[in-house]
Amino acid sequence: MFDVVYFCFAAVAWTLAGYKFRAWLRDRANADLGLTSMMTAGVATVFLFSAPSLYRAFDRLTGVANLAMVFLYSSVVVFAAGALVLLLRWTGGEDEAGRRRARSRTRAVLTLVAVAWAVAVTGFAVGRPDAVEHPRDFSTAYTDAPGVMVFLMLYLAIFGASLAGLGTLCPRYATKVGPSWLARGLRVLAAGCWLGLLYCACKLVGFVLSWAGRPALWLSNGVAPLSASVAAILVLTGFALPAAGPRASAWRRLRRLSPLWREATAQAPEVTMEGSRPGRWPFADLEWRANRQMAEIRDVQRGIRRYVESDAVEVARERAREAGVGPAQLAAVAEAVALRRGLDNRQAGRLPEPYAESVVVTTDMAPAAEYEHLALVADMYRSSVAETVLAEFRQRGGVKERRA
Description:
Layout: H1 2-26, H2 31-50, H3 52-62, H4 67-91, H5 96-127, H6 138-141, H7 146-177, H8 181-211, H9 217-267, H10 286-303, H11 312-322, H12 327-348, E1 350-352, H13 367-380, H14 384-395, E2 401-403
Antiparallel strand pairs: 1-2
């Protein structure tokens, strides 16, 4: 059971680490991206060595009992070191003097972490009292072994310090970058850091209770690893959101825009871009495809305005109000009616006089708002309100028209 869970989490984490590493290879000047790919790989390694079967297999291969725990905790220290470097980079300032200070402090901190961890590993090597495997109760099995306790206490100190710093700074940084997927990811990452501190606290309290002769195995071997696992999942989610969030939004936009785009461009194929970038799989180039669809729908709207009656937009709005359509949908109904009417007239070769100056109701919208608006247009394209208004135009008499 534990093997399956941890191997699944490790597979997801390694996939994310590989994706971030590939992105860093394309943008090697982005040191933060390189650090987060390294930190993600550290979390992935933790999940991998947390699987009891791999833990024991590694120890059998090396011939050293519980050596897998050293690799597991070393991966946590890699994550912690990356977090400390991020803290120094984010707080060092943007001028040249600030960057020099950040580099100097980074070297000092990494040296301190390296020395502390060398001492910790030495404590493990000289203080391990037996050769019994302890993949799930290592910290409680050796509370009377001074060398192992040095190893564990230094590990918790390094890990806890990095979590406290990153958990404090991430929300502040999220406020500075404004509403975005990056801000959401930073807040989720902060939540993972604070939950990781709960893990550290549980371990420390467990040590104290064991030394007092009142061991609380449920705390050290139950609550602590559970909180650490959830914290790791939150950390991975925080790392993934800045990349996955925009793609998920683009996928949702594509699903809503595609029916309208297909219908509009089928009757106006001249607006479609040649040499489109076919993805190797359905989730390739999502944002580019969403941008393309929005641009081509707008091109169709601009191209058919001379086929639309000058009062089509106002009539559509009035009929939508009478039907009880809310304010947010009024503009969408108007554009949907104008687009359908223009495409119908164009196909029939009718050019009304006078024709509409524009069939785009909303202008100067932010990209996200324009996507949402066009998605509403797609929703209203076949609505009963649109059908009613179009029927009214088809039944009109006395409209001056000339053949195209």
